[in-house]
Amino acid sequence: MYILKPIDYTFAQVTANTALPESDFPAWAAATSYTVGTKVIRATTHRIYQNLIAGVDATLPENAPSRWLDVGPTNAYAFMDGYSSTITSKLYNVSFTIAPGQRISSIALINVVGETVFITATNNGAEQIYNKTITMDATQVATVYDWFFEEFEQKPDHVEVDFPEAYNNPVITVTIAGSSTVSIGRLALTKAYEIGEVEYGAGINIKDYSVTTTDVNNVKTLTKKPNSKLMNFRVVLNQSETNRVNKLLRTLSSVPCIFIGVNAEDYEYTIAHGFYQDFKIILPLPKINYCDLVIEEII
Length: 299
Fold this sequence. Notes:
The protein is mostly beta strands. 6% of the residues lie in helices and 47% in strands.
């Protein structure tokens, strides 16, 4: 099992972004009189704000929460806001180049829509140090009929844990391509930690946030909401590594990470971007211990 801890990178470190320009809504202007409900963007914060009080006010929207409601990131920078449900999208392809200024050992792409992902990297813009092409087709072909008629099935998440960590200043380019609109919820540059092997019997289910209401005639209406993944893993640990894993998990308390139950093809469903609700170290044998993890996805 792997835990991928995202590093922080800034807007300035995103040196190329084909989802620009930011044209979601007009840019905010200090002298404009806005009506209630009007949305604007701020190129400085890369956020969208909705007006709550009509009129003119020169206070920057990010400094006037009683007047301007922050409704989320702009399309161009939604991929780095920390949530997978806010997406950056573009017709046919979208590409980002990031110079994080520090070592990384893994890359995670969460909530992806697209057919192919290309990842390349250089050492501070010089020699190439990484080059990989990934298909995001998860279609299961079991028969000749499936080969000809089964529709494309999207692989929503992908991780690479083999990035060369030796380089201090990698420059990473990630491109998502497809035959229609492509998108990504989160692009995380991460440090990977391996913590043992997941034991058979792991459980994966969802928490559904949909709401059912009943009117005066007892007619039920379902309002569909997002759902999040819940995973229960028992990880087998050697006694020699248990202390390290215990310390790591304590430092990652309430820290959103990417959890990978099984890092293998066709096991993408064991990937979740979220946090652990609880962990418990169990010492049943002299040289073998267990770690029970309960993980909840962030949407």
